[in-house]
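Collaborator request log, item 7. Partner lab (contact: R.S.) asked for a structural prediction of EFMT1 methyltransferase to inform their binding assays.
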Amino acid sequence: EMDDDDDIPQLSSHTLAALQEFYLEQQQREGMKTSQGFNQYSIGSIEEDWQLSQFWYSDETASCLAKEAVLAAGKGGRIACVSSPSVYQKLKEQDGEDFSVCILEYDRRFSVYGEEFIFYDYNHPLDLPENLLPHSFDIVIADPPYLSEECLQKTAETIKYLTKGKILLCTGAVMEEQAAKHLGVKICKFIPKHSRNLANEFRCYVNYPSGLD
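Returned to partner:
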């Protein structure tokens, strides 16, 4: 009879040591940040959590999308970032600009942002706080965490509830048809980039004349 343990890949002691070192460094970095009163809004102040399917945009892409959101929202506009924390962090860096922003995010680490943070689980698309009024955002930027029609469809319910009209969706190129079907958005020329290369080609989609073409 086979020994079941044979199927479990054992990590070499070298790999384990490297992993421990990585976690230690990460802990030290986190510790350093809190002790130095670092800028909590800067990109990278919260590390990506791949288990939550989080992938940060490159600095350039985050800046570009943030700039687009501010222009689209207009003076005194309200912007909602749904599962798109790196754009949110970029928006927060633009202090003194005339707009307000909320982040709807599953990752509770973002609760450091206080009242602007709204816990969000796309499986319950309309399970939102009462003070989040329907159609109260000038633009909604959304980056559904998974490339599945179910995830897009549910996130779309949230987007449609929140937005006055304008939608900026970031998702895989393979989702083009579903994006048109569920949100009426069209693909832009602008190619978003991530700080780490993703296997899937990524694109932006909008339903209004944007600066991303």
